[in-house]
């Protein structure tokens, strides 16, 4: 018999996925997210994950100094509002925000509020992209808190953010720290002048790499993306949020063009089963891995 997760004496956890579109109004987006968190809680969610930078449009499509005005302290106004909701609804909230750490110092950061409303801490995005229409290095300083796991009322959760999702090293370290679920708030989409075959290939790559993290580590992965047209119609955020179990099996897959709220039950005790039958963690040859710290393995 599998040993049950000791959190609340249960192994079953219900996670809420909130996939939504955003507007130019920060207050409107926050109020909308709060309403959707409450709706997810009413459906039975115990941990609710919001998408990356949910209080605004995805502003990193341009290098504009005015966009720094969107940032706030963490803890701060948004976490205060969400803390009250977490306490009222009895849910853990994962909230991705634009953090102003100090004058001229900003991060892409996710805060975690426990089910009693307490602020558990934050994770600062480690991998920062600089692609066409994703100019994040103009705004964000790479995270300096390391990888993080948060012990919530309903389990130990690991948080990574968007561009982190492409890196197996990040998911592995977070899992090795004891994360029972990996959450990825994210914001990614298609250029609307792109052909459909390229769109499909890009989405499949995005989903596949994250499901591989579930398989490699034997833990569920929850990826929450935004949806809708932004950048004056030049970008379609592709939605496609999903939940996969520790064997990479899709338990939920969202549409590419609709707002959705879904509650998915995960059995955290399955990780023990998967890791016993597919013992990837046990069989790691850790004594051979030191070269991974090199930029590239050559003579220089």
UniProtKB/TrEMBL annotation:
Q: Which CDD domains match?
A: CPA
Q: Which residues form the CN hydrolase domain?
A: 13-268
Task: Give the signal peptide, or none.
Answer: none
Molecular function via GO: hydrolase activity
Q: Superkingdom of the source?
A: Bacteria
PROSITE patterns, from UniProt? Answer: CN_HYDROLASE (PS50263)
One Pfam family here = CN_hydrolase
Q: Known InterPro entries for this protein? A: Aliph_Amidase/BUP (IPR050345), C-N_Hydrolase (IPR003010), C-N_Hydrolase_sf (IPR036526)
Q: Which Gene3D superfamilies match?
A: Carbon-nitrogen hydrolase (3.60.110.10)
**Which keywords fit this entry according to its UniProt record?**
Hydrolase
Q: Which PANTHER family match?
A: BETA-UREIDOPROPIONASE, NITRILASE C965.09-RELATED
Protein name listed in UniProt: Carbon-nitrogen hydrolase
Q: Which organism is it from?
A: Sphingobacterium ginsenosidimutans
């Amino acid at each position: 018999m599998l040993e049950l997760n000791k959190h609340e004496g249960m192994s079953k956890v219900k996670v809420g996925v909130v996939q939504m579109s955003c507007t130019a109004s920060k207050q409107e987006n926050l109020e909308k997210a709060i309403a959707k968190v409450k709706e997810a809680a009413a459906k039975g969610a115990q941990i609710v994950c919001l998408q990356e930078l949910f209080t605004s449009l995805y502003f990193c499509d341009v290098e504009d100094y005015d966009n720094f005005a969107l940032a706030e302290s963490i803890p701060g106004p948004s976490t205060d509002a969400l803390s009250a909701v977490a306490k009222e609804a009895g849910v853990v909230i994962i909230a991705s925000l634009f953090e102003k750490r100090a004058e001229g110092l900003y991060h892409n950061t996710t805060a975690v509020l426990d089910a009693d409303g307490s602020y558990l801490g934050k994770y600062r995005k480690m991998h920062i992209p600089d692609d066409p229409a994703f100019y994040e290095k103009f705004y964000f300083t790479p995270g300096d808190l390391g990888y993080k796991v948060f012990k919530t009322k309903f389990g130990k959760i690991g948080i990574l953010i968007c561009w982190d999702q492409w890196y197996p090293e990040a998911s592995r370290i977070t899992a090795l720290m004891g994360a029972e679920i990996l959450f990825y708030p994210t914001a990614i989409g298609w250029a609307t002048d792109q052909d459909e075959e390229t769109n499909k290939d890009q989405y499949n790559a995005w989903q596949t790499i994250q499901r591989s993290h579930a398989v490699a580590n034997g833990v569920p992965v929850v990826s929450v993306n935004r949806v809708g047209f932004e950048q004056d119609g030049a970008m379609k955020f592709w939605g496609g949020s999903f939940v996969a179990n520790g064997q990479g099996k899709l338990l939920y897959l969202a549409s590419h063009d609709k707002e959705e709220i879904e509650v998915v039950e995960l059995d955290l005790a399955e990780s023990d089963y998967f890791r016993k039958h597919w013992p990837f963690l046990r069989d790691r040859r850790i004594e051979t891995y030191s070269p991974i710290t090199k930029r590239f393995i050559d003579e220089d």
